[in-house]
Predict the 3D structure of the following.
Amino acid sequence: MSFDVHGPARTRPALAASATGASSPARPARVYGWLATAGIGTALVLFVLVSLARASWMQPPVPMPRVGPPFELTGWHLQQGTVTVLLWLSALAGGLGVAAGLVAAQRGARPPMRLLLAGAAVAVAILTVLPPAGSTDALDYAAFGRMLVLGHSPYVMVPWDLMRMHDAIAKSLPQEWDRLPTPYGPAATLEQFAAAQLGGASAARIVFWLKLCNAMAFGAVAITADRLLRSAPEARLRAHLLWTVNPLLIWQEIAAAHLDVLAAAAGMLGLIVACGWPAVPAAGHPRLGRVLAGGALIGLAADIKITYLLFAVGMAWALRKSAAACAAGACGVAGVLLPTYAWFGRPAVLAVLARGNKTTADNFYQLFSRAQDGFLMEHVAIIATVLVVCVAMLALAHLPFRATAHPAIFVALALSTSWLFIWQYQLPSYDVMIICLLILVPVSWLDVLVVVRLTAATIALMPGNPQPVREHILNRIYNYDITVLVPIVLIAVVASFIALCLSERWRNRPSRLEPRPELA
């Protein structure tokens, strides 16, 4: 992938240079473009290399089937310390590469789009056929699917029961969450069941089918964005930088096989189908069939992860002046959610809502509490809820692209960003919820905040091995990163988000796009 400059951005600097003798302003765009190419390319190559050698540095073991996929390079060993350093550097390079690419795009850089998309497709395809790396979550997914194949509910049974039964995939199951039922919705469980049916008694093969589904969802978002933005070169390039060639997303959703990308794809497509994009449906005359179908897609997203009901709020806001459209959208959402939860029963509802006061290791709330049993951490969910509501109200009132973004996309993005930035239990794989919508709104400072947050959170959880880092120095660095440095970055992002929402400079900044009319 390489960046180039063409059109007016090439001719205007030439005139200035001839008059002043200065170098062409197009050169900075090329410099940023090459930095983006180097950073993104380096990150993707390193992600592939460490995934090829997974067996030498990551637990639990995942025996490869005799006939692939997936595939693994045997006889090649990497030390866990080496992998940790490589992954930290690759995540940093990837984040900087995406940021440099965004700057290059604004300065007129236009890489060969086919080459960019082909490079992303190759990286995604390779990581799809390699074993899961960077997280053990996909092995938990395999366990939940396997339970359903054996006739048990993963909302009642836990992975430890498969270990106790000496099931065929028991040796590949991580112990970190082995006493907990699945926290995901019924649609996710059914996808895991299908993968377990296809994968049989091989954990590696089950995860391959899960990764293949992720790759298809990832590609669906990329293709949709490419088609919607094909007439706007800068917006199209920005969308592919934030999504398609973003190595941090590829690491989280393809290499590690987190299921969040499935919900993001369904939710984004649901908003587009139900509410139209870029045009808003005529006042009082939305097509009810489209709204029903879009609502069903959003219901599917929420049936994977219940938090995607925030997308339904965005749909309702865009259609709020048509009672029939709102009813059709609600029927679409309920038509997916109610039957599946009714089938799995009350345990499914309790399991999905069971997070409570749980926090991720890099949450920024720990900066204000010395003890996990202190007042703050004892009531962190209530405190976070109040803060989420306050920040959401601020974002809805003051995000700079409020007048130019599609109302459904804007509301869903404002709510999702507020929740992801503030809630005490967040993982970098969740950020697809923001980015799948961010690529459909005008460029703003929010791009930078999302990239910074995703980079820091990704580094905090690397290498993603349940085994502790053995090297003493690396272990100290890891503990410092996850308990101090990354929480500081995350709260700085929140503070910047709030400050810039309130800033008159950003509030009154003219947009490059004409305001879109809201639904009358």
